[in-house]
Amino acid sequence: MRPVDKKIRRITLCLMLFGLWAFPAVSGAQTQMVPVNFSQLAEQAKPGVVNIQTVKTIKGGGRVFRHFFGSPFGNQPGLEDFFSPFEGLPRNRTESSLGSGFIIDKAGYIVTNNHVIKDADQIKVILHNDQEYDARIIGADPVTDLALIKIDAKELKPLKFGSSKNAQVGSWVVAIGSPFGLEQTVTAGIVSAKGRIIGSGPYDDFIQTDASINPGNSGGPLLNMYGEVVGINTAIVKSGQGIGFAIPSDLATSVIDQLKDGKRVSRGWLGVSIQDVSQEMSEYYNLDPNQGVYVAKAYEDHPAYEAGVRQGDVIISVEGVKINSSRDLTMTIANLGVGSKVNIEVVRQGKNKTFTVKLGERPDSIEDSALGEELDGFDDLGFMFKPLDKDLAEQLGYPPSIKGLVVIQIDPGSQAALSGVIAGDLLVEINHKRIAGISDYTGILRAIKKGQTAHMLFRRGNSQVFVVRFER
Residue 201: its pLDDT value, please? Predict the structure, then answer.
């Protein structure tokens, strides 16, 4: 080899080692860019990302009114007179908010978060070239915090969805949006984790990323290195730097397709009350650790019961897919079409049985399901309750005359999980109102508006009483 050739090889090697030279990595039919920089990806994706501005009327002044015209020091003695001149200001105020979104087709459909456009009186979309359009809401799904809006515009450049299933932990991702109102901002990071539960609802399945996501990024795309949308940026942890969450694209696309077709989002429904299988239950039923979901109750005249599933069964698979937790079962059934016939495998008295269940439609809220006095799944605070009966009272050491709701399970990562309440505690009052059954609980909570406080009185055993405070 000539000296000149050796010199060129050494220079090339140094450039590659220090990240100054990037070669494309080929994967199948696609070419992935090595992330020396993200300028090419950002340049291609930016035309598909939009800024969303909304105006809504806030009754009672809202968060902004309280922030600017209420005492910033709380209810401190001696400060009332200083802030009292503002008490006569109008109670109803308009509030502007910012968010992001992305175009999914040339017809003008745009995906964003439901909380970005919820209750908006006016929605304005600003494209990358500063053109502005009024948008209308096509549909929304508060459960997954997704919304679909539409503008009448031409020559749009939509983004394509990729599969969040293929987004591996440790892989590079890019977030584009309008943090703090700064349009078309690009941040990069990696997929930190998948399947995160943050207590936002029964379908938590978030992608965690350290790509910076800040207020205003909500609804914007999380892109892989092919420029495909693998997530919708949704939430941040206020106390944690570099911790953001995105809705997986595989969950979002089925919801968006239904909204685009003008349909109300529907989800599969078994009609069972479930709980995770404890270690003791695994040993009792001779199951593998963390295998299966226990059927606490199968409701009569609902799909699972009609197919033959009964209380005490342990569901271990759906259509051959293993079920390891209540969340697994909830997500799997929800993603199957209403009316689908699915094979449910259970363990009953040590033997495996398979039932074919024709799925119903999950009700919008548990109380609408007419299932009687038991909650199916976690509520929005993260509790799963069951009314206290004679047998439970005897097992847990409560007086036979007392009434209330027993905590049978708590959703990890929820408000309930941070409260100190544990399974077996008994809820007896909310804001000095007695709780005798599920209907009392749901009715009282429904009457507590956002921003107000729920003081919950619990008993633990036959002696300890304590109060837990929740902000709605």
Answer: 61
